[in-house]
């Protein structure tokens, strides 16, 4: 393998790593485990970001799928640029943010490469994710602080509920007015 050959994008391994911190039944890691997990998450993000960026280039510039993917990339880079304090709870929270960013990038990669987000039809979970992603890139609090505002937490919780318990309908049309309104919330 030469130096310019990219490593494969292994979504399953990345998700397994992320879910070690995000699962409802996850136990807090020891400081050594946390350091290892954080390094793994950062490495996975370094591999995922360029692949998701490449996948966005195949999508027309004015589509919401591209905007959502680019928002995920921006959020992941922002989290990677933050160094947590030395306390264990803060380090766990930072690692969980990295894990959520990685999980979101994996979803975007799948959506862009598997055709899950096409045309004007979005699943309720995809719409909820878009609302959250657009809000976090436009909100002053979410952009300047490593925490999120109350609206961001509500939008994120709504997205998590929908992706864990998807409705039975296949897709929902995304009206242009709702898309524009979503981008102005903040």
Walk me through the structure.
The structure is a single chain. By secondary structure, the chain is mainly alpha-helical. It has 2 domains: 9-117; 120-186, no CATH class. 68% of the residues lie in helices and 2% in strands. The protein contains 8 helices and 2 strands, in the order ααααβαααβα. The protein has a two-stranded antiparallel sheet. Helix 2 (31-56) packs antiparallel against helix 3 (64-80), helix 2 packs parallel to helix 4 (88-114) and helix 3 packs antiparallel against helix 4 (88-114). It starts with 10 loop residues before the first helix and ends with a helix. 31% of the residues are buried. Mean pLDDT is 76; it is low at 1-7, 115-120 and 170-186.
Q: What share of the residues lie within helices?
A: 55-70%
* Secondary structural class: mainly alpha
Outline type: globular
What share of the residues does DSSP label as strand, in percent? under 5%
Taking all Cα atoms into account, the compactness measure Rg is 16 Å
What is the count of helical runs? 8
**Largest beta-sheet details:** 2 strands, antiparallel
Question: How many separate structural domains?
Answer: 2
The helix/strand order is: HHHHEHHHEH
What is the CA-CA span between the terminal residues? 46 Å
- Total number of beta strands: 2
If you average the pLDDT, what whole number results? 76
The parts where pLDDT drops under 50 for at least 5 residues are 1-7, 115-120, 170-186
Pfam families: DUF6415 (PF19979)
Biased composition (Low complexity): 166-178
InterPro entries: DUF6415 (IPR046300)
Region (Disordered): 164-186
């Amino acid at each position: 393998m030469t130096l310019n050959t990219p490593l494969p994008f292994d979504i399953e391994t990345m998700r397994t790593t992320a879910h070690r911190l995000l699962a409802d039944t996850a136990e807090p890691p020891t400081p050594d485990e946390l350091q290892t997990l954080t390094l793994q998450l950062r490495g996975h993000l370094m591999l995922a970001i360029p692949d998701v960026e490449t996948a966005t280039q195949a999508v027309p510039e004015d589509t919401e799928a591209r905007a959502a993917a680019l928002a995920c990339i921006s959020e992941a880079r922002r989290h990677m640029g933050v160094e947590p304090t030395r306390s264990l709870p803060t380090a766990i929270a930072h690692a969980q943010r990295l894990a959520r960013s990685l999980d979101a990038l994996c979803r975007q990669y799948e959506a862009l490469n598997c055709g899950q987000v096409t045309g004007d039809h979005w699943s309720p979970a995809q719409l909820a994710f878009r609302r959250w992603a657009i809000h976090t890139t436009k909100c002053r609090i979410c952009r300047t602080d490593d925490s999120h505002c109350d609206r961001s937490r509500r939008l994120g919780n709504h997205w998590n509920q929908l992706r864990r318990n998807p409705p039975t309908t296949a897709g929902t049309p995304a009206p242009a007015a709702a898309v524009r309104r979503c981008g102005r919330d903040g």
